[in-house]
Recover the amino acids of this structure.
């Protein structure tokens, strides 16, 4: 058997003690307190922990496969730390942005300089408990990807990092919409007219179906007419279904989904200026919804810091 250690230098973590998660031991670097102090003063990023893991295998190829799996594992740990601490935590010289088809890796969101830390959602003393709960999930190196959580986490973090108030609204909105679209079905029913491209596509599928030619001309005309009358469910309906299915109750929250969608349409479709007070309120609601949605998908059971309550400790779920 071959046995060796692999180590990754990790930047931007602010925890007060060493810890173990999965196959990795996280050890604070020498002079940690001075590094953190300097980091805050300069608002920049530094190596703060070293993550080490032991790997064994019968041959070199087995070792290579294990290293590849450990790479995925450390990335998932860093994503969870980043999400919980409100700052990009990553391996040095490594980008944890999601791969987006058609764009080079790292093109969309690089790891930015730290504003350290900005918006924790898991208190420092609860982080290890949070990670321990996630341990069985992240033993699967594709857990976050297969559950469609990487993209929402990336945009959530981008909304925290950005200095432009409009983007602080847009990015968490994209996070929420991506969660909703991945986790609800699009029923062709509602009051929004389908795009012409989609109706044309449905028409072609119908015409090309082997049974279509066997129908009478009257029945053909009836079916083609029905296509032009199809409507789809509005996004608001799908958001409400997603919230209900993920047990994100409104009992202690006052999310104004209608205003959020109106603001979204004004920004996306008409580039209108939105009053700052409204943007801030919508931004807080969106971040809260995204955080609670992701915690629900992670099946977290514990306390977190709620932005709409002034980062008060709240029990979840």
């Amino acid at each position: 058997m071959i046995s060796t250690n692999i180590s990754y230098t990790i930047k931007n973590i602010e925890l007060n003690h060493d810890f173990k998660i999965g196959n990795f031991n996280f050890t604070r670097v020498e002079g940690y307190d001075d590094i953190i102090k300097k980091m805050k003063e300069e608002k920049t990023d530094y190596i703060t922990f070293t993550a080490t893991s032991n790997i064994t295998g019968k041959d070199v190829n087995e070792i290579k496969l294990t290293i590849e799996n450990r790479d995925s594992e450390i990335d998932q740990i860093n994503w969870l730390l980043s999400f919980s601490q409100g700052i990009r935590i990553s391996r040095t010289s490594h980008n944890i942005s999601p791969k987006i088809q058609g764009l080079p890796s790292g093109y969309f969101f690089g790891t930015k300089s730290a504003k350290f830390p900005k918006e924790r959602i898991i208190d420092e003393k609860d982080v290890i408990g949070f990670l321990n709960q996630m341990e069985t999930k992240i033993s699967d190196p594709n857990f976050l990807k297969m559950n469609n959580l990487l993209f929402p986490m990336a945009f959530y973090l981008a909304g925290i990092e950005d200095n432009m108030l409009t983007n602080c609204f847009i990015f968490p909105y994209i996070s929420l919409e991506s969660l909703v679209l991945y986790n609800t079905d699009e029923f062709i029913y509602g009051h929004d007219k389908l795009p012409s491209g989609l109706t044309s596509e449905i028409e072609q599928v119908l015409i090309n179906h082997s049974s279509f030619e066997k129908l009478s001309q009257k029945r053909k005309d009836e079916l083609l007419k029905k296509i032009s009358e199809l409507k789809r469910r509005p996004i608001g309906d799908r958001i409400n279904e997603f919230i209900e299915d993920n047990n994100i109750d409104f009992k202690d929250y006052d999310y104004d989904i209608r205003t959020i969608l109106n603001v979204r349409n004004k920004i996306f479709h008409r580039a209108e200026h939105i009053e700052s007070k409204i943007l801030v309120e919508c931004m807080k609601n969106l971040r809260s919804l995204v955080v609670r949605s992701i915690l629900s998908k992670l099946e977290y059971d514990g306390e977190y810091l709620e932005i709409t309550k002034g980062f008060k400790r709240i029990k979840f779920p």
Summary: The longest helix spans residues 60-85. Residues 118 and 215 are 64 Å apart (CA to CA). The longest strand covers residues 47-57.
